[in-house]
Amino acid sequence: MSTERGGELDLEYERDDRPPWPKSLLLGLQHVAVMIVPATAVAYIVADGVGLGAGETAYIVQMILLFSGLATVIQAYTIGPVGAKLPLVMGTSFTFVGAITTIGAEFGMAAVFGAVLVTGFVVEGLIGWQFDRIEPFFPPLVTGLVVVIIGLYLIPTGMEYAAGGAGADDFGATHNVGLAALVLAIAVVLNLFTRGVARLLSILAAIVVGYAVAVPLGMVDFSPIFDAAWIAVPSPTRYGFEFEPIAIVTFAFLFLVSAMETVGDMSGVTAVEGRSPDEDEVRGGLFTDGIVSSIGSIFATFPVTTFSQNVGIVSFTGVMSRHVVAVSGVILAALGLSPRVGAVVTTIPSAVFGGAVLLMVGMVAASGVRLIILHTELDRRNMVIVAVSLGLGLGIATTPEAIQGLPPAAQTFFGEPVILTALSALVLNTFVPGEQSPLFDEAALESVTPSTIDPSND
Predict the structure, then answer these.
(1) Alpha-carbon Rg of the chain, whole angstroms?
(2) Which residues face 319 on adjacent strands?
(3) Transmembrane segments in this chain: where (predicted)?
């Protein structure tokens, strides 16, 4: 394990190092193993909420793996200005789950992919180009609250899965709850009481055990696997495109939030070298987010962004080699070309996924809390911002009918907990004087001139 020295880690392999091929393959597989479950869980949750069949779910999983792999390779090696030349593993984010589900159910998946096609390229491209001007509006208080609400409002979804899935005939049955509890317990024990690979792969190991237990209980249907082909070429415009204004506005705001997460992950990676990402790295990383998301929407994949848990692997192992991450990208892309891989995910019982999803979304919320606590003084001003933002976000998540009197477009936009929380935090933090305000804090600093400083107070 790497050690820290003066803010910089002693790296086993630096950014441009090329480990031997056997080691690169194993290290790349480790990255894939850590991200594949949460990435495919996003597809599983959305498919259930929108009402997609097993075949459609398997195809979306296939596309998620394919474009996650392509985006990962681009981040490692770049294409022109696109890519950061950093070890960033890409995948689908929980940030977009609520909006995809809501808009997909109301307007259809064509509206989802139409909105991603437009906003991915335009919004993240603009942010990458003008990042220095936008960054001050998204300090840790704002981004931390967004991460917290993403985790919290998905907890009921995890509980539904743990009980067997909404609408299931055996919802809440002992075998469902027991299976979810087993998966959760194994993941927690491995994460807290083991080290090395066992800890890093704790969630994956728990799902494998849960799946193995579910098979003799008759809870697994293998038919989707045998019905799927080994190899298939992606089919563009599978769902078509529709351009609903409210869907475009909603995804534009969420891409803004996602961009801040990506910058945070880039900062986490470069921190092992004792530095922050430079302008070209930030711009290239955000361009990859947006452009690959837009291109991926043509083939029916959800927006891709950086995966924080893989940033943790870089710090933990001391392996910063972008070539290792490129290997993981090639593996993901290869898996994405096989429908049978996607079909395997659809056979996992809801209860097994429930135990894992509960832990994953809980960890998302916990990481948001950590981000706030480490970088924000919880004084009266900031406590009020936290209270209002989380109150509104959780309020709309638990009682969506509270705004049923608004026009349909407003219901769709303000009915998203992530948007309501982010918008509240952004507005309050910007216009209320305080340390993290991009407006008033700067004005306060400029007002402190030499003539106003009393040396006797030193």
Answers:
(1) 22
(2) 13
(3) 25-47, 59-79, 86-105, 111-129, 136-155, 175-193, 200-219, 239-257, 324-345, 351-373
